[in-house]
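Thread: quick sanity check before group meeting

JM: Hey all, I'm pulling together slides for Thursday and realized we never actually wrote out the predicted structure for the chain we discussed last week. Dropping the sequence here so it's in one place. If anyone has concerns about the input, flag it before I start.
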Amino acid sequence: MPELPEVEVLRLSLVPLLTDDVIESVDVRFPQLREPLDRAALEDLAGRRMATPRRRAKYLLIDLEGGRTLAIHLGMSGQLTVVAGGTPHERHEHLAFRLASGRRLRLVDPRRFGLALVIPTDGLDGDRHFAHLGVEPLSEDFHGGVLAEAARGRRGPVKTFLMDAGVVVGVGNIYASEALWRAKVHPKRSVARISRRTWDRLADEVTATLGRAVEEGGTTLADFADGEGNSGYFQVSLEAYGRAGEPCRRCNSAIRRIVQSGRSTYYCPGCQR
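JM (edit): ok, ran it. Output follows.
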């Protein structure tokens, strides 16, 4: 599944392609996604000008004239790309917007776990898809104190805690392993046994790990592509994830793999405590 850096890379690539363009028509081709597409709400977006794309967690948000926001989640295999107007339709192209610029914005999703929602802009924070979400890890509101406060009264492993979207959004499986390696924190350590100083270090490394992934274009471990169809390449820079049996680049111990909550976790037993 695309994680937060992939969605942020997508957002950045779409900014020059979509900002101030106008949706001329909407083509709902196959409405069967995780939640069926609301044809009437989507078609009502025709004639509206788009603002600069933004992001909340793993949702891409496009605010439009008239107080409507188009919220798109890529699910497991979704791709949102801008193509030339005459480009043939893809087999799994569920939704397309013909733009005044002559281009087409299309959502392709073979596995159909994606979402495309139309939500009143002023009601976004209270919508059921967003009301439960925690702090943004790339924002100024995220720091060690936020993690320490959220961990108060808990005793579970820190890896699972970091992946709780009610605490902090977008720290998926790959980047949680990477941030914990960078912070030298064992993924099974209980959040009840982490000091404020360690929380500060871990928050810094979460931000640094995600920021570096954005700079390097995301990861190619899924079907990710940016708004112009370019794949990511953060995979080549992974320090722990997917490197079981290989030497740690910091202390030379062999990276280990364990399973936590059904997900693979990679860590160094030599320098993660």
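AS: nice. The CA atoms of residues 55 and 61 lie 5 Å apart. The radius of gyration is 20 Å.
JM: adding both to the slides.
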